[in-house]
Amino acid sequence: MFRITRQTPLPLHSVAATRRMEHAAMQVLAAHTLMQRAGLAAARLALALAPHARVIWLACGPGNNGGDGLEAAMHLHAWGMRPVVSWLGEEERLPPDARCSLQRARAAGVLFTDEPPAGLSAQDLCVDALLGIGATRPPEGRMAGWLAHMHASAARVLALDVPTGLNADTGHMAQPLPAPRAERHTLTLLTAKPGLFTAHGRDACGTVWFDDLGAPAALPAGEPPAAWLGAQPAAPVPPAACRPHASHKGCFGDVAVIGGECSAARGTAMTGAAWLAASAALHAGAGRVYVCPLADAGEPAPAAWAALPEPELMLRRFSALELRAITAVCGCGGGQAVQAVLPAVLRACPRLVLDADAINALAASTALQAAVRQRSAEGHATVLTPHPLEAARLLGSSASAVQQDRLAAARTLAARLDAVVVLKGSGTVIAAPGQPPCINPTGNARLATPGTGDVLAGLIGARLAAGAHPWPAACQAAWQHGALADDWPALQSLTAGELARRLRP
User: Fold this and answer.
1) Is 63 assigned a ligand-binding role in the annotation?
2) Coil/strand/helix, residue 58
3) Assign residue 271 a region: left if phi > 0, alpha if psi is -120 to 50, beta otherwise?
4) Which domains does the chain have, with CATH numbers?
5) Among residues 82, 84, 366, 401, which one has the fewest Cβ atoms lying within 10 Å of its Cβ?
6) pTM of the prediction?
């Protein structure tokens, strides 16, 4: 067993693949072995999390997830702890393994109660063993009441395999849990599942632990995992910080940020988004960084740029950019003006990051989407960085539909546009055509502030300019972007400008 951290590259397997692995393991192991191992692992972790617990309450459901909890209760009782089991089930309808664990727990003298214990304190522990990976509907009735009691108490919560109600494949939760009052932990068994690390999964699971139960089974040769957690090991990124002494700024790539619309007619000024992306590219190590602000006719509005926040950045008119020689970050604050320049950018730029209003322009034009696909055929690199609403516009869907299956949305967009897609959000999903997506394990709610997405776009641009392939460039940039937020000083506000300034090559 080990704790999964942001430093843990890990294959993630779907529910269907996990079932196949479980079935294969049961063909070579003695009956009841997997549940015995799962229960022992759960009991060991429970003891480590709450060694001084007055009460360890195990809420056990009517299936094999409940069986894991019953098995854990037997061990905790044998070790001198005070487990209390609330069980929802009918013995005659239990799966064979769960029935065996129920009998073992009763024979050991474990205390059973029909109602959850009152007065749970911070030193106590609640174990959620109600519904596992096979659940397809939200909890209701007594089960829902028990969950509400569990998460309203001051006790820590340990979920077995997945928190009840969480879709292990997608991370969607029909009834999201309330903000935690205490620590949450999840022990995922046999395989790690993608839903634990994206959408509602990160909030519901808290700290995730993994035990493969010593199972000898594996997927058939050639069957990939559903996703990867962290950057895929087979996709290294050139070490941008290792620079020779005999180098100059032209060695590290030119980035041009095309956006920052200023429109007197529409009363808009979105120059800040372009500056943030450019600042990120600069501090992330790009050799030269140009900013191309846009006005109604696709030309700069000089009056809006009188004070340069960072003198290292250089202004350029769009017509003065050498599009075939640069890495472009297009769309940050681009407004409607970006529509005029986007066709030329798509045709000419060898390396391109599309963000914000550039993505919105794509969503409204099948011709522009075809131009994105054509870029791949010509060997050009393209990375899109949509948030859920922008992804929904591209898919002709809704943001809520995207959030219900973030991996599927990212995979569909990557295949449709033949490009790398970075679907931002909790558990950012990075997808590329023809390979399992990556779920980024870093980042937190500090990033829910204006401009942090522009910073990510600029950071990816710098990685592309340094010569990285778009897939690892996007994975590394998302990881670094989130890790900065994770390491942010506790009493200091995170702003996008300061985030950009803290980037490193």
Assistant:
1) no
2) strand
3) alpha
4) 2-217 (3.40.50.10260), 249-501 (3.40.1190.20)
5) 366
6) 0.95
